[in-house]
Write a structure and sequence with these properties.
With 303 residues, the protein is α/β, with parallel strands linked by helices. It has one domain: Rossmann fold, CATH 3.40.50.1820. The protein has 12 helices and 10 strands. The model has no long low-confidence stretch (mean pLDDT 96).
């Protein structure tokens, strides 16, 4: 039943943005199941990765403005229709890189550009560090999760604490009001109705809550980010892939000042500042897409 609710919400959002997407289901040994991917467009390959707790289809407002490329929007494990396992987060970096490599192999992509947000940006950066041969360039839309000394708002840190997080989620079940509070927390309120419905449908999927709690626990603690998963300046200095950092002025996870520090650290990075919060494409895709297109025109990648 919940899968049907999600499918209806996803289809409505894609239709509103005039996106004709093929759905693919790819075998993913790292999750002992299958991954869900939306494919649209024609041209060089761009892989899109969502942030924590939301599916790849949430990127539809941005996807609709990226012409001349083939876009592969991948639901990360536990979010949207991609399967997950209870142990995936136990060795998070290894499994994240393994999952992304499996996706590239299954899609027949050698070295695509990756466009990502938040958790997806963290994973994409790990891939670029551990498997630099598989990433042509990185485009981060919003502050990457746990970059430098950034963390997450207090409600997310509280959710990461066991068993407090389980109790909090039991007391605040997915609802329109709860999604509205989430939008306020990431400074993207009010969400467009179709995106709000998609987020709500995602949270009602059977596998969502355990995956969400497990991931938060591996990323955060009450004091902030867990040191073993944070992106340090030393790590960022090893990212050889050309990188575009799209930072929003009101991003509670990390604003333009964090982007400036990342640019100073990374060998080949540039910063573009836009309006919005942690998911700035929701309301400001018109400020983001032209910067991405210009960046793609300037880099050397598979065409």
């Amino acid at each position: 039943m919940h899968n049907d609710e999600f499918a209806i919400a996803q289809a409505a959002l894609l239709e509103r943005h005039d996106l004709d997407c093929e759905e693919r289901w790819l075998e993913a040994p790292s999750i002992h199941g299958s991954a869900h991917v939306l494919v649209t467009g024609d041209g060089p390959p761009v892989v899109l990765l969502n942030g924590i707790g939301v599916p790849a289809a949430m990127l539809a407002p941005l996807m609709s403005r990226l012409d001349g490329v083939t876009q592969y929007a991948v639901d990360l494990p536990g979010y949207g229709l991609t399967d997950t396992t209870s142990e995936f987060a136990d060795d998070l970096r290894v499994n994240a890189v393994r999952f992304l490599t499996e996706m590239l192999d299954a899609l027949g992509l050698d070295r695509p550009v990756i466009v990502a947000n938040s958790l997806g940006s963290l994973w994409a950066t790990w891939l670029a560090i551990d498997r630099p041969d598989r990433v042509a360039a990185l485009i981060h839309v919003g502050c990457p999760a746990l970059a430098l000394d950034t963390s997450a708002p207090l409600p997310m840190r509280l959710l990461s604490v066991r068993p407090l997080g389980r109790l909090m989620l039991r007391l605040q079940q997915p609802s329109e009001g709860q999604v509205e509070q989430l939008a306020k927390m990431v400074h993207e309120h009010p969400l467009p109705d179709d995106i709000a419905r998609l987020v709500l449908a995602t949270e009602r999927l059977d596998h969502f809550e355990p995956a969400f709690r497990s991931m938060l626990h591996r990323l955060l603690r009450l004091r902030g980010a867990r040191p073993n998963v944070s992106l340090t300046s030393t790590e960022l200095a090893t990212v050889q892939a050309p990188s575009l950092l799209v930072f929003a002025r009101d991003d509670p996870m990390g604003g333009p000042a964090v982007g400036e520090r990342m640019v100073e650290t990374m060998p080949d990075a540039r910063l573009h500042v836009v309006d919005g919060g942690h998911a700035p494409w929701v309301h400001h895709a018109d400020q983001i897409a032209p910067a991405i297109v210009r960046f793609l025109d300037q880099i050397s990648w598979a065409r």
